[in-house]
Design goal:
The chain has 16 helices and 23 strands. The chain has a six-stranded parallel sheet. The longest helix has 20 residues, at 382-401. Helix 5 packs across helix 6 and helix 12 packs across helix 13. The two termini are 53 Å apart. It is α/β, with parallel strands linked by helices and 601 residues long.
């Protein structure tokens, strides 16, 4: 199936048949067309921007019809009967694969007179489809080619005098319009590149990596409806944003498209396949290894045609091993696609930044020619993008000098700056740790008043909820501030031992509070990065802490401390990259330290 929009005339959806028109199947063709039109029309009616209303009844703004396309070269042999078939079908058949007429000359589809005999009600005053309306049509009918934001468009439904009488088309109150963007030509090409086997996408923050993975999962689930497709990630907020987009795309009835965090996935394997329970929401390494052993031993027959893994840089190689063995490698169309950003390793990884996919036990995958870099930045405004690009270069230059990364193996600095207009960037260092609450309150007020930003568009991102060893209780201080100022807020911090009310990302209202690792895969209109004081130190067991006083001090640290320093630096970079339009950095890190140098330079 496909769709074609003629802005001045309306929408056509079409089905392509490879066979000749069969006179005995005329009623079947008609029934099929009516069936598709009912489904598509109902789907489009959920959009606030695509409908008009008359009292409590609604219809589409524009003409819509479904047609069947038959191949010209075969039908041309039946010229004597073709016209009769077309008359019988009426709206149901046009005889072309491409927009060509029976004499073989190409014509624009709007010249073929398709928009006649429209059966579904529409606004008789229709004149043209706007770009916003075209995006809304694509979001509902071709979701793999759009990006849906968790931001509701303020749309007023237009009144019509179309004399509606369809009892089924009642205003429900659930009609919505989320902010939607088209994928550009480059992104569409990436989605349509359904390469097989194992491969890696390395992308900078804001490059649309998560969007591409979701779109590929949609496309695979559509192409192979009977096969299981898995999209997994580490972060539950990212998984929730995926499920939000899946719901918008109306993929809810696809029972073979699974979207969940890795640990929830393992728990579901235990519950549904093994009829057991994991000891906690976060599966232990022993439980994961047990799954691997059962798959290898033929005791677990679950298999997936396609597995897409997001934020692979924070996956334990053990997790990747389980996913790899759950792949149906006997299927010629199998796909094992991992995507991530080695610069966003917000958790302590192996020494020298070895990629996790190179450490899968017993699996030696050759990635020569299978690593693709996506450099373009779609998210950050120009000034913010320049700031985090320079930060990235500075971090990687220093880490390379300390021999903590091999800068020759991967393109660590491949960050392309876009041209999105800048709104605000403010970096303030040297703040006294006891004044961070006051600075945070001033920043919120300034962003709301100066840039006309609502509370719900602001996220406060921080490394830790608290760090008792340095008597630093950032989350408590922040909640106290917001409650005193009567500022609404929601927390999306993921934890298996949460002592607070956590909301799903798709259900937040007010200022969003999140740790850096809980924000992976998400973005916000305005970001305040604060609570950085603990990054003045590295921490170990039993209250051990060591100040990160200089680059030479880092050089003298042991492997564990060095990898912790590296993850802290990359966490700051990750947090800054969550900001689309406005970024405030409020740093109470100790002065004249490597981390402060990164923020200032």
């Amino acid at each position: 199936m496909g769709l074609y929009i003629t802005p001045s005339e309306g929408l056509i959806t079409f089905s392509i048949y490879n066979d000749l028109i069969d006179e005995d199947k005329i009623n079947t063709y008609k029934a099929y067309v009516n069936y598709i039109e009912d489904i598509m029309y109902d789907r489009l009616l959920d959009s606030k921007i695509l409908i008009v209303r008359e009292n409590d009844t609604k219809c589409l703004k524009f003409p819509y019809k479904h047609i069947i396309l038959f191949p010209n070269e075969k039908i041309r042999k039946k010229d004597s009967v073709r016209k009769n078939y077309s008359d019988l079908l009426g709206y149901a058949a046009i005889e072309f694969f491409r927009p060509v007429t029976s004499d073989g000359k190409e014509k624009h589809i709007s010249e073929l007179g398709i928009f006649c005999d429209i059966h579904k009600p529409y606004d008789k005053d229709f004149s043209n489809l706007s770009d916003l309306e075209c995006r809304a049509i694509f979001e509902r009918l071709a979701p793999e080619y759009t990006v849906v934001m968790n931001e509701i468009e303020n749309v007023v439904i237009k009144e019509t005098t179309a004399h509606l009488s369809e009892e089924d088309f009642k205003i429900s109150g659930n009609e919505l319009e989320y902010k939607t963007f088209f994928l550009d030509e480059y992104q569409v090409a990436q989605v349509n590149d359904m390469g097989k086997g194992h491969r890696v996408i390395l992308a900078n923050p804001g490059a649309g990596k998560s969007v591409l993975l979701l779109s590929k999962a949609f496309k695979y689930a559509s192409m192979f409806k009977e096969s299981k497709v898995l999209l997994t990630c580490y972060n539950s907020n990212l998984a929730d944003s995926y499920r939000f987009k899946k719901a918008c795309a109306d993929f809810g009835d696809n029972k073979n498209l699974f979207i969940m965090t890795f640990h929830k996935f393992v728990n579901e394997i235990y519950r549904q396949c093994l009829h057991k329970r994991c000891s906690s929401p976060y599966a232990t390494d022993e439980e994961i290894q047990s799954c691997i052993d059962m798959v290898k031993g033929g005791k677990l027959n679950l298999r997936f045609k396609a597995i897409f893994i997001d934020e692979v840089q924070i996956f334990n190689p053990l997790y990747l091993e389980l996913c790899y063995y759950l792949l149906d490698r006997e299927d010629p169309d199998h796909v094992f696609l991992m995507a991530g950003d080695l610069n966003q390793a917000v958790r302590k990884l192996s020494r020298r930044g070895d990629a996790p996919w190179k450490q899968i036990n017993g699996v030696n995958l050759d990635f020569t020619g299978r690593v693709r870099y996506i450099e373009k930045n779609y998210r950050n405004s120009k000034e913010i993008a320049e700031y985090i690009s320079d930060m990235l270069k500075h971090i990687n230059n220093r880490l390379s000098m300390l021999d903590l990364i091999n800068s020759m193996e991967y393109e660590y600095n491949s960050f392309k700056i876009g041209e999105k207009p800048s709104v605000a960037l403010k970096v303030k260092t040297g703040i006294n740790r006891m004044d961070i609450q006051k600075e945070l309150g001033a920043a919120i007020k300034e962003i709301v008043s100066t840039y006309d930003i609502s509370y719900s568009d602001i996220a406060i991102i921080f490394p830790y909820k608290q760090h008792a060893s340095v008597k630093y209780y950032f989350l408590y201080w922040t909640e106290k501030l917001l409650n005193q100022e009567d500022i609404p807020y929601s927390m999306i911090i993921t934890s298996d031992k949460a002592t607070y009310e956590r909301k799903k990302y798709s259900q937040t209202s007010g200022v969003v509070l999140t740790t850096i690792d809980s924000s992976l895969g998400l973005d916000f209109k305005a970001v305040i990065l604060a609570g950085l004081y603990p990054y003045s130190f590295v921490f170990g067991d039993k209250g051990y802490k060591k100040e990160i006083s200089s680059w030479s001090a880092i050089k003298k640290m042991d492997d564990n401390d060095q990898t912790q320093v590296q993850s802290q630096m990359r966490s700051v970079y990750t947090a800054c990259s969550r900001a689309r339009d406005i970024l405030y950095v409020l740093s109470d890190i100790n002065p004249d330290t490597p981390m402060e140098e990164i923020l200032k330079k």
